[in-house]
Amino acid sequence: MVNVNEIWTEKYRPKSLDDVVDQEHVVERLKAFVEQKNIPNLLFAGPAGTGKTTCALALARDLYGNNWKHNFLELNASDERGIDVVRGKIKDFARTKPIDADFKIIFLDEADALTQEAQQALRRTMEKYASVTRFILSCNYSSKIIPPIQSRCAVFRFKPLPDDAVKSLLKKIADKEGVKVDEKAYDALIMLSEGDLRKAINLLQSTAILYKEIDETKIYEMAASLKPQEVNEILQYALKGKFRDAREKLIKLVALRGLSGQDVVKSFYRAITDLDLPDEYKVELIDKLGEYEFRIAEGASEDVQIEAMLAQFVLIGRKIYK
Predict the structure, then answer these.
(1) Is the CATH number of domain 23-157 3.40.50.300?
(2) Nearest in space to 84 (alpha carbons), one of 31, 121, 125, 48
(3) Rounded average pLDDT over 273-299
(4) Does pLDDT of 88 surpass 80?
(5) Domain extents for the chain?
(6) Mean pLDDT along residues 83-103
(7) Which of 41, 156, 158, 211 could lock 50 by a disulfide, CB 3.0 to 4.6 Å apart?
């Protein structure tokens, strides 16, 4: 039976840099720092679920051994993003003496959520306590980090994990947890996670709590997402002028799965890129998707915008099948 008290993303998190998968361009450089027993300030940038936090924790373990928690402070900047946290928690920890080490590490996750004022204060703190404290900043978008901080850091860019690496780790976890997962279910996990390993593991665990044997249908049900074949069917209805059929099927699925408008747009985007159509029509379809995704994000009625999007697909379909 699956232990619901364990979070698999933490249970299977690598404990050492040697265990980190498919980020060799980052890991090899970090190992060199560990060998020298010294690191500069670091900036980890890249998509979610690609190993930024894992590498920071693994680096601290390799560097400090069993005492790593005494010399390591982890903060999530999206929770505490104002100047007060820089002047308070960060400054207090930065100026205290490290334990059995030359320096301590402050890890700021989601540092791109820090306000401009907080980043300016952080820049001065990084400079003032450089002799006893190193900073590791993690962010999705390095462009949101002010240039003075970027210039004080060695930048490491993380790439989305390839499908085979994600599938290999998911299979390893499923085997250890005694969960039977078929190949199409793995493909669904990979497609829905889009290179985000954390999302894939969480979705696998959520499904495994309810089912001992997992197939593609159960994954899509748990993710509250449209299957590719369902999206293709709706697309074909719309492009061939069957607006009523496309509308009825989509409304039924949205109500059944509890989908948001942006979920629907993302599902159509993946399907359109795989359509057997000339690029000029794909470009037009994706252009319309972007327009309606923006309208939904700005607060327009999701039901109206989704139906308007289908209507645009019908008009584009008339050009294709005229």
Answers:
(1) yes
(2) 121
(3) 90
(4) no
(5) 23-157, 163-223, 228-320
(6) 77
(7) 158
Q: Which residues contact 47 (CB under 8 A, 6 or more apart)?
A: 140, 158, 160, 195, 196
Q: What are the structure tokens assigned to 188, written together?
A: 């669904």
Pairwise CA distance, residues 156 & 77, whole Å = 19
Q: Kindly report whether the global pTM for this prediction surpasses the value 0.85.
A: no
The Cβ of residue 229 has, within 10 Å, a number of other Cβ atoms equal to 10
How far is 113 from 107, CA to CA, in rounded Å? 14
Residue entry with tokens 């590791």:
136
Residues 6+ apart with CB under 8 A from 56: 42, 44, 74, 105, 107, 109, 136, 138
CB-neighbour burial class of residue 89 (10 A; exposed 0-12, middle 13-18, buried 19+): middle
Whether 113 and 81 have beta carbons less than 8 Å apart is answered as yes
| pLDDT (average), residues 79-93 | 68
pLDDT digits (tens, 9 = 90+) for 308-320: 999 999 999 988 8
Q: Which residue has the tokens 């969480």?
A: 202
- Class of the CATH-defined domain 163-223: mainly alpha
Residue 49 near residue 203, CB atoms below 8 Å: no
Assigned token pair, 8: 């698999």
Of the chain, the percentage scoring pLDDT greater than 90 comes to 43
For 40-59, what is each residue's pLDDT tens digit?
999 999 998 899 999 999 99
Give me the pLDDT at residue 313, please.
Answer: 92
At 317 the three-state DSSP class reads helix
- Reply yes or no on domain 228-320 having CATH 3.40.50.2000: no
Q: Calculate helix-pair angle for 261-273, 302-320, nearest 10 degrees.
A: 20
Give me the mean pLDDT over the 116-133 stretch.
Answer: 86
How long is the chain? 322
Name the one residue in this structure whose structure tokens are 């004080």: 152
User: Could you give the 3-state DSSP secondary structure of residue 205?
Assistant: helix
pLDDT category at 100 given cuts 50, 70, 90 is: confident
3-state secondary structure of 61: helix
